């Protein structure tokens, strides 16, 4: 009898142990599965990105899965997926879209000492919802044959009569132009921004078409004299293996507007990362942000995509350094999101297509 009870007891104990072991094993494999990947929703469209993720995978063994789409589509997706979203990180080339995502409660604050110490203070999000990984300036480029740098000064001065039929810029539906106009609304008010947009249209060399690179090519082809473009595209053209692109890059000079005392500084925007509110692989996500803001990844950005580094220990590429330093607009970049709706309304009332 006693033996029987003992036997039953032992069997029960063994069963419990086996169940316990199985549970531990399954939770281990779950954790292991989790800890080996990180999921990005990214708006970025540059070759350097694949290089970064490969280097990260090699260094950490963590697989980077990327879904690419435009920022609004990714935000919509995050919203619809809610707490079931597999996304860990949202990457945008526009602080305005990161501000939008944070306002929709799709992001969580990032507090991490290593990440914090990797980044220049004045580029950080004052609310802590996103981390910049690079920044870019929206600069002026001008025909070296037909314009002298001394003739240029501010974004506002592009509306001067002397530039009639000379200005090239892409469409107003483009996020880079919307961010620029948002910064003008924030710095100078709605009326001033409205006047600027509608007066600039008067000086357009042609109806807006193409991307930033196409504006530079149009200068090289003599279709206009001054273009508003993102800085890194000039680096990309000057390092291009395509004869036509190299020629276009060499035909223009680089000018940083709004540099004089009392002026706001040249408009910049960041490429930045937000941590998804329901990030299932948060630890890996933070590791990736740490990696992307660290010195080796920052060097890869500056030398491959010619953006500016957010890590103060890394210098811009030689091509970009040759343009010299500049005063950047110190506007809180969240305002690029806060004033976006107003900027789009202004574009709609101007005839900037
Ligand atoms: Fe771009």
Model description:
It is built from 15 helices and ten strands. It is an alpha/beta fold. Strands 1, 2, 3, 4, 5, 6, 7, 8, 9 and 10 form a ten-stranded mixed beta sheet that branches. Helix 2 runs antiparallel to helix 12 and helix 6 crosses helix 15. It is globular. Bound molecules: fe (iii) ion.
List its traits.
353 residues, alpha/beta, ten-stranded mixed β-sheet, 47% helix, globular, binds fe (iii) ion
Sheet having the most strands: 10 strands, mixed
**What best-fitting shape do the alpha-carbon axes yield?**
globular
Strand content: 15-25%
Mean pLDDT: 93
Hetero groups in this structure are: fe (iii) ion
Low-confidence spans: 17-33
Q: Classify the helix fraction into a percent range.
A: 40-55%
Number of strands: 10
Task: Please report the number of helical segments.
Answer: 15
Termini separation: 93 Å
The succession of helices and strands, N to C, reads HEHEHEHEHEEHHHEHHEEHHEHHH
Q: Round the Cα radius of gyration to an integer and report it.
A: 25 Å
* Secondary structural class: alpha/beta
């Amino acid at each position: 009898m006693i033996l029987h009870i003992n036997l039953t007891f032992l069997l029960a104990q063994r069963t419990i142990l086996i169940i316990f072991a199985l549970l531990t094993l399954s939770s281990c494999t779950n954790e292991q599965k989790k800890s080996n990947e990180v999921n990005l929703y990214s708006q970025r469209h540059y070759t350097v990105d694949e290089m970064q993720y490969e280097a990260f995978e090699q260094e950490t063994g963590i697989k980077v899965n990327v879904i690419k789409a435009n920022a609004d589509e990714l935000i919509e997706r995050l919203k619809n997926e809610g707490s079931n979203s597999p996304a860990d990180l949202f990457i945008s080339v526009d602080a305005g879209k990161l501000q939008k995502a944070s306002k929709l409660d799709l992001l969580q604050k990032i507090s991490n000492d290593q990440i914090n110490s990797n980044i220049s203070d004045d580029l950080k999000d004052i609310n802590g919802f996103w981390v910049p990984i690079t920044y870019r300036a929206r600069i002026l480029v001008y025909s070296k044959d037909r314009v002298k740098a001394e003739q240029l000064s501010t974004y506002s001065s592009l509306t001067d009569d002397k530039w009639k039929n000379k200005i090239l810029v892409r469409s107003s539906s483009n996020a880079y132009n919307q961010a620029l106009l948002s910064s003008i609304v924030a710095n100078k008010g709605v009326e001033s921004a409205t006047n600027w947009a509608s007066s600039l249209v008067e000086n357009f060399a042609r109806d807006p078409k193409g991307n930033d690179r196409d504006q530079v090519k149009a200068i090289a082809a003599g279709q206009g004299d001054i273009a508003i473009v993102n800085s890194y595209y000039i680096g990309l053209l000057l390092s291009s293996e395509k004869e036509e692109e190299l020629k276009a890059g060499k035909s223009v000079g680089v000018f940083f507007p709004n540099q004089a005392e009392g002026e706001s500084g040249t408009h910049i925007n960041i490429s930045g990362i937000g941590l998804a509110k329901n990030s299932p692989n948060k630890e890996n996500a933070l590791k990736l942000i740490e990696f992307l803001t660290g010195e080796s990844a920052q060097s890869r950005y500056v030398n491959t995509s010619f953006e500016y580094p957010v890590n103060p220990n890394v210098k811009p590429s030689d091509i970009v350094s040759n343009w010299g330093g500049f005063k950047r607009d110190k506007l809180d970049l969240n305002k690029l999101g806060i004033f976006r709706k107003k900027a789009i309304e202004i574009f709609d009332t101007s005839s900037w297509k």
